[in-house]
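User: My collaborator sent over this chain with a note saying "see what the structure looks like." That's all I know about it. Can you take a look?
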Amino acid sequence: MLQYKANLSPFSPYALAAHPDHIDFLTAYQKLRVFIEMSLTAVSAFQAAEQRGSSASELQRGLQAIEKATKEAWYAEFCFCTVAPKGMGKLSNQILNASVTRACKVLGRPVPTAFLEAGPVSDDFPAIWEDLHHEMHEVLNRPAPRTVKVMPTPPILVDEVVNKNGCASGY
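Assistant: Without extra context I'll predict from the sequence alone. Here is the result:
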């Protein structure tokens, strides 16, 4: 029974073998989940450090962790949107907007205008993730369209891309 349930996961070897055209799509989805979770974890850690009355240097490290995780989440969401159908891109954008809004609230900073223009943000992460997960299964039950691989093979950090291109960093 446990093996049967494990095979239901879209990331199981069985699912990947059954849907080889969806590997880039599934990889992008997994990266999105990981980096959004890292961002939310960094925000929670900062909030806990602030409540403990931590030193200014520890709080500064917490701010840097939030900034880095948010950049990575933004990049993961961008990569996901390049390989996902339109409706799923909207859901992933809602998740990113909710995580940025949560970070801004904890930090006492205004939400960047780019995120405000997206419209009202739901703070119900489980419901949005559930909708996205449901859409994932819908896509996996259809044949995959041919996609262009846009994500680099070795994992890289957004800062490395920004520095190579000489662009200013920021999200």
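A starting point for your reply to your collaborator: Residues 29 and 80 are 6 Å apart (CA to CA).
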